[in-house]
Amino acid sequence: MPTDATQPYDDQNIFAKILRDEIPSKRVYEDDFAVAFHDINPQAPTHILVIPRGAYVSWDDFSARASDAEIAGFVRAVGDVARAAGLVAPGYRLLANTGLDSHQDVPHLHVHILAGRPLGPLLMR
After folding, report:
1. pTM of the predicted model as reported, rounded to 2 decimal places
2. Is 110 assigned a catalytic role?
3. Which of 49, 57, 78, 115 has a C-alpha 20 to 30 A away from that of 71?
4. Residues 38, 103, 108, 110: which is the catalytic one?
């Protein structure tokens, strides 16, 4: 279900369930601040999702409410995942949707790491 950045956090969303190990995922990284796993519906040859462990609906919510340590830890985790996957030299795209107009489907902040082929223009015209 799409989300609005101002809505309260729903602890029954799929990513909250993945964090609680109620739903399996193919994890590639985890630390105190973040978990990363392969997307089940990849949009590129490499499609990894990175989510914070905290209950944040969107980038807006996260940037407003997360502690400095959570923000730094999450941003570092995204970089660590991209480097570990060998994506720096060929290049990769980061994408974080916020709200209805961006088509955010899961109301838990997540960053998509997309790579593995030339990705073309960012927005469809």
Report:
1. 0.92
2. yes
3. 115
4. 110
